[in-house]
Amino acid sequence: MTAAPTQARRRQDMTLPLLLLAAVTSLVLIISQHGDVLARLGGLGTFLGNPLVRAVVLSLFLANLLFAYRWRTQPWAKVLVGAACLLLVLPWAGRDNTSLFDTAIQIGIFAALALGLNIVVGLAGLLDLGYVAFFAVGAYMWGIFGSGQIATILKYYGEHAGATNAGTLVIGLLLTVITAASMLFIRRAGKGRAPSRASSISFGLASFGLVAGLTLTGRALLVLNAAKAQGLATGLDAGFFWLFLALSIFAAAVMGVLIGLPVLRLKGDYLAIITLGLGEVIRVLANNLTLYTNGSQGTPPIKSASVPWLDALAGRLGFSPDQYPLFFLYFLVLIIISLIILVNIRLDRSRIGRAWIAIRDDEVAAQAMGIPLMRTKLIAFATGASFAGIMGMIFAAKQAATITPESFVLNQSIGVLSMVILGGMGSIPGVILGAAVVTLLNLSILPSLGEATANMNIPQQVNPAQLQRLVFGVILVVAMLFRPEGLLPNQRQAMQLHEGEDDNAPAVDSIEADSGQDAHAEMASPGLAGREDDERTGGVK
Amino acid sequence: MDLSTLAPFLVNVVVGGLVLGFVYAIIALGYTMVYGVLQLINFAHSEVFVTGAIVGYEVFRVLEPSPMNGYLKLIIALIAAMIVSGGLNVLIERLAYRPLRNAPKLVPLITAIGVSLILQDLLKIIEGLQGRFDLTYTLPQGFSNKFCATGSSCAAFGDTLRRIGVDLQVKDIILVVVALLSLAVLNYLVNHTRLGRAIRAVAQDRVTAGLMGIDSNRMISATFLIGGALGGVSGVLFGMKFGTVNAYSGFDPGIIAFTAAVLGGIGSIPGAVLGGLLLGVIQNLIGVTNVLGSITGIANLAAIDASYQRIGAFIVLVLILIFKPTGLLGKSNTEKV
User: What are the TM regions of this chain, as residue ranges (chain B) (predicted)?
Assistant: First the structure.
């Protein structure tokens, strides 16, 4: 890991070293992925062809971006290195080794997920252990509609139409509109007052009506469209990709609100376990609702959109047609991740961002300052969810062959959480770095460790290929022990805390942190420590 | 099926659920004890518990040829598991949690996850080097017999039990007895000894307890020791109940037990027991809903199979927490400013 640069090193102009390093690593990366050149290089070629060396080279190459961000250089050098690495060198190397694209897209997906979770956990202080559920929603939306699964569903409803007809659609729509309107009315009427028992009961009843209305509408739509099943044998037209890209954001955000409404009243670890539970519920449903998701077998092949001129460009550059979708998705991910970073930076400095931080640091004080707790928390949940939703859809398109519920297990949620905390909670560059480090470890370095040692005479049980959990666990523990504030901690907090200090590691006196009362201790916690006070529920009795 | 056959069936399911619930309850205690003093979800507890199960397996395996009394073997297995798991838990606390006592709360959570991953693979290596992965318990003679089987001295009692639907094996009875004994010991330890009082003081307010002359680090170690020992006991009980364990089998029971601890109100010892028993029964009931569905002829019930068992626990948790946000027996607290 990169050590924190000292003051002296920071003042030096690093333009030249950065450019040199970028050039050298780029060259090595391209050579190491290129089979022909490797063959000609002899001994050096075999060394560079080693999977482990390749993984290390890739990591070093990506580290250029980190250096470009961290080092003190001329601004043009930063832009040059960043653009050249992402837009030229990586696609070039990816042409010879498609798995590079895969890894890069995967890093982008996880960076977006980590940024989303960073809003929920790092800014708003809501520990969410079921975050991957929103990812699953986005993935299955396109996974169902962009594959032959939709035809299967329509066929089933065509055969099991029952009493459903156009009338059902009208009833369903009416029910939806009426219940939604009455829910809004109840909310409006009760504004500014504490909800009475009658109003919450009627609100609950209306929400049941809404669910019934939506179910009826959905069912009627499916039955009425059953005849189209024939034409949809491979799913909706790829042109719908863009519509669904927007829909997946929306659907995941709605899902975030729906899950958030009942559970956001809970605090700390109660929230953690209930979100964990809901995440598992989504996964088990994906596993069991075989009609919609095809269960553990996974969906049929999933389409991906394509942009004609981009494909033409790829063809001109010597990419093979089966690489076009990845080429397209790589650039799509780059665009989306830049947008997400932009949104994050704006949010961080906005009114709502400050409201989140206020809630994280002290809920009661935030409320006293006039921050609507529930609404602010719901916005955090919905925003985080929407990032996961859109990336879920891209994940589905990237997987192409199939998506299975196995991609949405609890360990994924935990993995994303570890990215956020390893990188530095509340810090945008930190979280992205965390995502890159963890993804590289899991997808590139640890598997290649196994490949590289496959020919050595190591007993099966202690083969590194089998011990990814062990290595990942050791890295997590060691990183946390030596850098509990994360690899790139939040600058603002570090600044507030350490005016005039050299060291940017928060040094919190034990008593302060323990009591959780001191202002400094509160600030030092980029997480949930400030809430300790109200979480002492009972203790051991 | 009419009531005269349905009732014994349900009784059997509920009793089986209670037996399972006792295992969950003892695991949940390990979570809740640690949470009580450190407000930390000890994700590594599920591996501490599996370690206990593996130690139990080894003891039973080594002692299999010896003509020793089965109950003596069980006691040796339990004690060995308690020592190893308790020691392991103390070691984990010393290495992975204590250095981070003043770090933000999520940091030890991540190390806990890391330790959990490390232990999973370490356990796999240890057993793997001997060429084993799935470990099948070799229980002493008689443990798998029916409780009060026909022909034994208490056959009449056993027959009555079976008539009302209670059909247990000897090991189920042992399991409940051991669980109740550990609960009694824990209750005595926490509520009636100096050590227990000190632990409770640390749980309530670590700083003030320190000012009163309590060495909070030692008390936290003691809590981890007790919690780990309970994990060891529950591991052996789990192994006896299910017959097979492996290095990764701590995950599911761990999640369910933690859910049980939260359901009962985390930090509360009676709450953990209540939650464990409740989840055990619910899980067993969901496991047979398809049978119930086919008995009663309700098609929707018949479609729910055992794969819904795990989310059944979570749905109950969601419902209960919505109405009682601090769990069944958790103290509701007003926020201090």
Answer: 6-28, 40-59, 71-92, 104-123, 173-190, 222-243, 255-278, 285-304, 310-330
For residues A214, A216, A218, A220, the Cα torsion angle rounded to the nearest 10 degrees is -150
**Full residue range of the structural domain in which residue A103 is found:** 99-147+236-406
With an 8 Å Cβ cutoff, are B267 and A539 in contact? yes
Alpha-carbon gap, residue B48 to B42, rounded angstroms: 10
Q: Are residues A166 and A62 in the same domain?
A: no
Q: Which residues of A touch B200 (CB under 8 A)?
A: 539-541
Topology of domain B3-185+219-323 in CATH is ABC transporter involved in vitamin B12 uptake, BtuC (1.10.3470)
Distance CA A253, CA A381 (A): 8
* Contact between A477 and B205 using a beta-carbon 8 Å cutoff: no
Most A CBs within 10 A among B117, B192, B307, hence the mutation to make, goes to: B117
Query: What is the per-residue pLDDT for A338?
Result: 94
Task: Look at residue B337 and tell me whether its pLDDT is greater than 50.
Answer: no
Contact of B272 with B24, CB cutoff 8 Å: no
> Is there a contact between B266 and A288 if contact means CB atoms under 8 Å apart?
no
Rounded mean pLDDT, B234-247: 92
Q: What is the ipTM of this complex?
A: 0.87
**Which residue in the set A365, A467, A525 is minimally distant from B121, CB to CB?**
A467
Whether residue B264 is predicted with pLDDT greater than 70 in this model: the reply is: yes
Predicted confidence (pLDDT) at residue A532 exceeds the cutoff of 50: no
**C-alpha distance across the termini of chain A, in Å:** 43
Considering the domain architecture, whether residues A173 and A285 belong to the same structural domain is answered as no
Chain A closest-CA separation from residue B158 CA (Å): 38
Range with the poorest average pLDDT among A22-36, A158-172, A494-508, A509-523:
A509-523
Alpha-carbon span A389 to A247, nearest angstrom: 9
Q: How far is A169 from chain B (nearest CA, A)?
A: 24
Confidence (pLDDT) at B334: 52
Give the count of domains, chain A: 3
Q: What is the pLDDT of residues A460-470, one digit of tens each?
A: 666 776 777 88
DSSP code, position A4: P
Q: Has residue A266 been placed in a domain?
A: yes
List beta partners, residue A304: none
> Of all residues in chain A, what percent carry a pLDDT higher than 90?
24
Out of A205, A234, A263, a domain closes at A234
Q: Is a pLDDT exceeding 80 seen at residue A274?
A: yes
Are residues A254 and A154 part of one domain?
no
* pLDDT for residue A193 is more than 80: no
| Range ranked top by mean pLDDT from A13-27, A56-70, B186-200 | B186-200
**Inter-chain contacts counted by CB atoms under 8 A, chains A and B:** 220
Residues 6 or more apart in contact with residue A517 via CB below 8 angstroms? A533
Same domain, yes or no: A227 and A244: no
3-state helix, strand, coil in chain B (%, to 5): 75, 0, 25
Within a domain: A158:
yes
- With tokens 């955000």, the residue in question is A253
CA–CA separation, A220 and A371 (whole Å): 42
Indicate the residue of B117, B200, B313 with minimum beta-carbon distance to A472: B117
The mean pLDDT of chain A is: 81
Residue given tokens 């090595």 in the structure block: A28
B319: nearest CA partner in chain A = A262
Q: What residues have CB less than 8 Å from A83, skipping those under 6 apart? A: none
Inter-chain CB proximity A475 and B114 less than 8 Å: yes
Q: Is A279 in the same domain as A389?
A: yes
Q: What single-letter DSSP state applies at residue B146? A: B
A225 and A245 both lie in a single domain? no
Scored b (16 or more CB within 10 A) or e, A339-361 reads: ebbebbeebbeeebbebbbbbbb
Q: How many angstroms separate the CA atoms of A14 and A17, rounded?
A: 5
Residue A257 φ then ψ, to 5°? -70, -45
**How far is it, in rounded angstroms, from Cα A232 to Cα A421?**
44
Tell me phi and psi for residue B136, to 5 degrees.
-100, 120
